[in-house]
Description:
Elements: H1 11-15, E1 21-24, E2 27-31, E3 46-50, E4 53-56, H2 62-69, H3 88-102, H4 111-118, H5 135-138, E5 170-176, E6 200-203, E7 219-222, E8 231-233, E9 236-238
Parallel strand pairs: 5-8
Antiparallel strand pairs: 1-4, 2-3, 4-9, 5-6, 6-7
Amino acid sequence: MPEVDPDFFTEFEKSLPHHEMILVEGGSFLMGNGGEDAKTWEKPVHEVSVPSFFIGKYPVTYVLWERVMQTHSPIFKVKGLPVEKITWYALNKFIQSLNSLTRKSYRLPTESEWEFAARGGIYSEGYKYSGSDRLKEVGWYEENIKGETQVVGGKISNELGIHGMSGNIWEWVEDHWHSNYIGAPSDGSAWIGQNVDSGHVIRGGSWISDARFCRVSYRLSDLTGLRDDHVGFRLALSLPN
């Protein structure tokens, strides 16, 4: 396991609600899906080597958002709900504010980092969903939810102790959308293309999704200016040099 200074996270960061970061040890994995249920945008299966990094134990919640942005909304009485209805530009303002407060370089995960973490990293048991082959154990989706997001941490975690990477909300990652993996990076970096109008990749499925959309390999895109009520994000952080 990579050595990380125990004082790397400040007391301020440790005090932030729902801000626990999980260390994902680096390794190689087969990204994508080559099974009978695979869509063209999940292909081809390809090997990716991902360096060690941190990822949020939970998606960003309203209580964390309000603490960082120094705002308060009486609409969201349940502060453990994941942030939604925000644009790509708004989430980047949040990350800039967080970095200003912490003097770190928080960011969105790359798509390959996200999938590696969702699969359980080097401890993966090969599950279809993030932490189980039974989606009801690990995620909120159309069959076990009543038309709204749920408080984070309400289902069991995956092999790394990460919650909610299948269902509840789709999660933005850094990569631009490409319709397949031909030419995708193999080093864990973000795949940034020329056509920014294609939007950014979202992963994980949501409360309005059926089970197929919640598979660890499934991917869609969302436009940067939209405010969807089923799309949020999770933080990532590179290890110190």
